[in-house]
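WARN retry 2 of 3 for item q-0093 after timeout on previous attempt; input resubmitted unchanged.
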Amino acid sequence: MVSRTDNPDAEQVAEETTRTRPTPKSFNDADTESTVLWKDRKRILGMPLSFTRYIVDEDRLTLKIGLLNSLVNDVLLYRILDVKLVQTLWQKLFGVGTITLFTADKSQDQIKLRNIKHPEKVRRYLGQLIEEERESRRLVGRELYGVASDGVDLNDH
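OK item q-0093 returned
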């Protein structure tokens, strides 16, 4: 058995992780601000008239739904397994589309970004962000093993 002190690479990875993601010392020191990389709203007839908002920052996708009663759901980018775009004829006429994200999250295995502007551009951008986040965490390919072994035949979908 290899202990942590016998593996200098593990110590280096731990030090890098500590440096890039510092732990707040108290609740008041927690960093609640993040850089928004992309945001949009669910659109009705091409207009942003709904109370559903989609926000992507450095490491997560956040869905905020509602006005009086609200729901906020986060999914870490590296847990997104696949990205699919669907555009109906009506969506094409209004310049919107629906992106479905398939995730390794047990609470929500599919997330739909409905009726967003520039859907093809957003699909490509999200794909790049997801790959960068996986590479930065050194998770390329490893997360897929647990999902495929759940008894689900991925070729049936």
